[in-house]
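Researcher: If convenient, please comment on what follows.
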Amino acid sequence: MDAIIRITVMLVAVVALVNLGYGVLLAGRLARCARQRHPNGWLGLWLPAWRSPREAVAWLAAWRALFTSTDPLIAAVRRDGRTVLMRHAQLFAWCETWAMLVVLIS
């Protein structure tokens, strides 16, 4: 019983670390793509300084245009982002399932 818990904890930790690393790589790819599409104002996408609601709407429109483009790189970033989120959901489900199993057994 104790070995099962240790193995599970190790597997969950490994999946969490892989997911974290993949998320960091995904953020880097997104930053590179934002820099390519907005060479002068890419920092404004990441660190907005709104002085009016119109600027906030323009900022949201810039992100929406970035994510809805047909660029293959953005499509790959969207797909990989969904993969990271699904892995996180699976990790949460595994943790909850094992916790219920351990409570049931003990």
